[in-house]
Design goal:
4 copies of one chain form a homotetramer. Chain A is α/β, with parallel strands linked by helices. Chain A has 8 helices and 13 strands. Chain A has 2 domains: 80 residues, 2-Layer Sandwich (Alpha-Beta Plaits), CATH 3.30.70.260; 194 residues, 3-Layer(aba) Sandwich (Rossmann fold). Chain A has a 7-stranded mixed sheet. The longest helix of chain A is centred in the C-terminal third of the chain and has 24 residues. Chains C and D meet through strand 11 and strand 13 of C and strand 11 and strand 13 of D.
Chain lengths: 287, 287, 287, 287
C-alpha cells in the first residue's frame, strides 16, 4: 500500500434531501478531486442519507489542513454528521483480552503482516495468562485483575493507560468482562466486541452450550459496537458455519473460534478503513 | 427410483450400552440383509444411542409382515424406541396454507416432478385465496375460515378431513395460524413448520421487520416440528443468506421466501425418507 | 408495487474521468429529480466507470419521451454507453426448456405470484414433455423438435415466434441445446442460461458426475449471459451448497436443482430490474 | 483433552460385502470395547466400504501392542486396507513455507494453543523471510534456497531433515514450489497443500487474478493431498466466500487468505485426528 498516494475519506449522514449527491460531487470536482471510491445509501423508511467518498489528496485543490473548513458550509447547509479521515493516519488500537488466545493471536499476526492499518501499543487483560503471547510479539501487556470491588479503580487505571497511549479504538478480543456504562460512553462506536453467536440468537453467556441444547444446524459469530445494553450494539459483521448433531459442544466451540477470529478481524479492518457508518442502532458498511 | 428394489428402514434410539451395533448388525447379517445405508450417533452427554439402518427387502430372510415380531426381542432387550418403514409405502401429506403461495407452489411442483415420496390428497386453508393454485395442480382445496370463536369447530373439521384422507404428516406451508395444543398432540413430530427466521433469533411475528430493525448481516429460515411451545420445536433444517444495509424489508422478504421454500422442502423430504430422529427437543438428521 | 410511482433508471458506462458523478447528479437535481437509488462502480484497472441511477418520474422536470434527448449531450460528452428504462414497462420473456421441469415450474410460479416484472407470452421446447405444465399455467407452449439437420430451420422458426411475440429476453431454463452463434448475436446480453456447476469448474456436460468423481466438498450453480463460447459468458449470479462423501450423484443432482432454480430466478430478476451492467466479459450487479 | 482416557481408532476400507459391520462390531463387543464414535460409508457405485471406529483403550480386553495381531485375521478375511492409531500418539509435522506468513502464523498459533494434536519440530522454507516468526514461536527454521539446478540436492537435504526429525506429515503452508514426483511418492497421502481457489476452478498460478478476470461472484480455497499431478490430489476440505464486482484483486486476495488459513487448518486437524480416508482420488471425511 506504500506506493499509493494518500487519500481523504469523507463519511457523512444527514436527512435525505435533493441535491446532496450533486453538491458533494461538485465540491470535489471544482477542486480537481480524483474520486477513488464513492458509495451512498438512502434508508427510505428512516429518511436518512449516508455517504462515503474517498479521493486522492495529490493534485487536490484544497490543502489537507484547510479541508474541514472548506467543507463545513456544505455540511451545515444539509445538517450533516460528518467526519474526515486521511489514509496515512494510523489509528491506535488497544486489545482487551482475558484467557482465550485465538482472537489475540489472529489480530497480532495480522498486525505484524501489515493487514491492519493501525498501531497496537498495548494489550490490557484481567488475567496474566496471555502475557507470554504479547511478549512474543513485543507488545506491552498490562494485567489489571478485576473483582467486583476493584472494578471502578481498575477501569480508571485502564482509562489512564488508554489516554497515555493515545488510544482511538478498543477491540475486545474475547474479553469476558462487562464494561461500565461510563467507560463505554467515553468510546462511543469505538469499542468493537466479538460475540460468539449469531446475534440476536443466544445473547448472554455460554452461547455454544445454548446452541447445542437447542439443536441448531448453523452457528454464527457477530462483531458489534459495544453499547450500554449487553450484546445489543450496532452489528458490523457476521458469519456462520454449518454444524450437525455430530458436533459436540467442544466441536461447536472449535468451529466457532474460527468464525470469531475471522469476523472480529473483518470488523476491525472495516472500522480502521473508515467503512462503517452507524445510524440508529444499525450500521452501513461501505465495502 | 422405480428400478430400485424396496428397502426396509429401522430407526431406533435407546440408552447407550455395549453391544448395540453388534447385535443389530448380527440380526441383519444372519438373515442375509444387504445393508444400503447405516448410520449411528451417540450423544455422550445424554447417554443416548440413535441409529438408522436401511437394507434391501429382496433376498432378506424375514418376511415383511414378520419383521417387527422378529426384531421385537432385540428392541425389548435394549429398551429401544423404534420404528420400521418400507420404501414403497407412500406417506399421505396434508398441506396447510394461508395467503402466501411460494411454499405451496414449490411443494406441489416437487410433488408433481416426483421429488417427494408421498401422496398429497388435500390442501387446507383458512383463506380462499390459493384455491386456484390447488385447482391448477388438480388437488382438492378445503377452505376452513377461522375466527377465535370458530377455531375449535374448524380444527375439529380439519381433523375429520385428515382422518378421512388417512393423513400421516402435516406440512404448514406458511400457515399463519397457531394450532391448539390438542391438535398438535395428535400429530407429535408429524407437523412440520417453516419459520421465516434463523431460530431462535426473531421468534414470533414479523421476523423480517425485526431483522431489518436490528441490522443483521445474515438472515435465515428454520424448519421444525411443531410443539405446544411456539417456534420452539425440534429443528430439522436451517439455511441462511447474506444481506446488507442495501436490503429493504421488502428485499429481505424476497430473499427469505427463497430460503423458506428450499428449507421447508428439505425438511419435508428428510422426514418422508425417514431420516429424522427426535430426542429431547433435538433431532438427529441421518443424511 | 402498484402503489409506487413510476421511476426511470439510467444505466451507463464509460471511460473513467473527473466530473462524471457531479454532472449526472446535477442533471437530475436541476430537473427536480428525486433519486431513489444511486450506485456507481469504478474499475480502476480497466479505467471504466459504471453507474445506475433510479429516480421518480412524478415531479421530474423532463417529460418521459423527451428524456433521452435531454440526456444525450451528457452521454456524448463523456462517451457513454447508456440505456434508459421505465419501471412500468414490462419486458417480454420467452422460456426455453427441454425435459427438466424444476426451473420452469419455479419461474412460472414466481411469474404468477408477481415476483418477476415481466410478461411471459410463450414457452419454447425441443421436447413435448413439459407442455402440460405450460397448459396448467395457461401459457402457450411451442414444440420445435431438433435434429442436427433441422436445427437451422427450427432456430429460424423460434426467431419468428420471438419476433411475433415481441420478446426482449430469453431465459434458458435447463434448455439442453446449444444455440448457434447467429442466434446468440441477435440477443446479445439478453439470453440468460443456468449452468449446473460453479463455473469455471466443471464446464460442459454432466457436471454433477464430474463433481462426484472429483470428490468436491461444495457444489454450485451459475447463471450467465450466453455468448458464442460455451459456458463462458458474463456471470450474473452464483450460489453454492455444502456436500459430502455421503452424497451420491443423485443427491448432488437434487441439491443442485435447488441451487439452479434459485440462482436462475435471481439472475432473471436482476436483469428485469435493470440491475446488471456488462463490461468486457464481466458484470456489475447493482443490488 | 487430558482428562479423557486414550482411545484406539481403526480406519479401514475394502470391497463391500455382507457381514462387515457385524464382524467388526462383534470383535469390539467380545473384548468389552466401549465405542466412542463409529461411522461407515458405502460407495455403492464403486462397491467400496469404508469405516472409522474409535473406542476406549481403558477396559478393553486386548493389550495395545497385541491389537494389530488380534484384528489381522478379520482384515485378511475381508481384504481390508486398514490402519490403527492411538489418541495419545502425537504425529510429527513439518511446515513448508515460502514468503506468505498467514497460514504459518495460523498453524503455529493453533499449535501453541493446543488445537492440533501433533508436534511441530521444524519449519522448512526456500526463503529466509519468515525465519523471525519461527523464532518468535521457538521453532527451528531451515532455509533451503532453491534454483532449478539445486532442486534435487535441496529436496535431498529436506528429506534428511524430515527423517532426522521423524516427520510423519508435511503441511505446505503456502509453499510455492512444486515437489518432485519422487519426493511426493515417499509421503503418499501425507502431504497436505492449500490451493487458493475452489478447485477444480482456477488450478495453476494466480487464481485470484483469474477469478477477478472471470468475474466470479464466489471465491474459494481447497486443501488436498499432494499427488504427482498438480492441484489434482484428493480434496480434504473446501470453503467459499461471497465476493462482488466491488472487490479488486487485492480484496480477493485478502478474503482468500482468510479462507486459506481456516481451510488448511481444518484439513490438518482432520488428518491428525485420523478422520480422512482416501480411496481412488477421493476422500471420505469422518467428521
Amino acid at each position: 500500500m506504500s506506493d499509493v498516494s494518500p487519500t481523504a475519506t469523507l463519511l457523512l449522514s444527514c436527512p435525505d434531501q435533493r441535491g446532496l449527491v450533486a453538491t458533494v460531487a461538485a465540491f470535489l470536482y471544482e477542486h480537481d478531486g480524483n474520486i477513488i471510491h464513492a458509495d451512498q445509501h438512502t434508508d427510505a423508511e428512516e429518511g436518512v442519507f449516508l455517504q462515503r467518498v474517498e479521493w486522492e489528496l495529490d493534485g487536490f485543490g484544497v490543502e489537507r489542513d484547510e479541508l474541514a473548513d472548506a467543507f463545513a458550509p456544505i455540511a451545515e447547509r444539509f445538517g450533516m454528521n460528518w467526519s474526515l479521515r486521511f489514509s496515512d493516519a494510523r489509528p491506535r488500537v488497544a486489545l482487551f483480552v482475558s484467557k482465550q488466545a485465538h482472537c489475540m493471536y489472529d489480530l497480532l499476526a495480522r498486525y505484524r503482516m501489515g493487514e491492519l492499518r493501525c498501531e497496537i501499543p498495548l494489550v490490557i487483560s484481567n488475567h496474566a495468562d496471555l502475557g507470554h503471547i504479547a511478549a512474543d510479539f513485543g507488545i506491552p501487556y498490562h494485567h489489571l485483575p478485576l473483582t467486583p470491588e476493584t472494578k471502578p479503580e481498575q477501569e480508571a487505571a485502564a482509562l489512564r493507560l488508554l489516554e497515555a497511549h493515545g488510544v482511538d479504538v478498543i477491540v475486545l478480543a474475547r474479553y469476558m468482562q462487562i464494561l461500565s456504562a461510563d467507560f463505554v460512553a467515553g468510546y462511543q462506536n469505538r469499542i468493537i466486541n466479538i460475540h460468539h453467536s449469531f446475534l440476536p440468537a443466544f445473547a448472554g453467556a455460554r452461547p455454544y452450550h445454548q446452541a447445542h441444547e437447542r439443536g441448531v444446524k448453523i452457528i454464527g459469530a457477530t462483531a458489534h459496537y459495544v453499547t450500554e445494553t449487553l450484546d445489543d450494539g450496532p452489528i458490523i459483521a457476521q458469519d456462520v458455519s454449518v454444524v450437525s448433531h455430530r458436533d459436540s459442544v467442544k466441536d461447536l466451540v472449535r468451529t466457532g473460534t474460527d468464525l470469531e477470529k475471522v469476523v472480529l478481524a473483518r470488523a476491525t479492518r472495516l472500522h480502521l478503513d473508515n467503512r462503517v457508518l452507524v445510524y440508529g442502532n444499525r450500521t452501513v458498511i461501505f465495502d
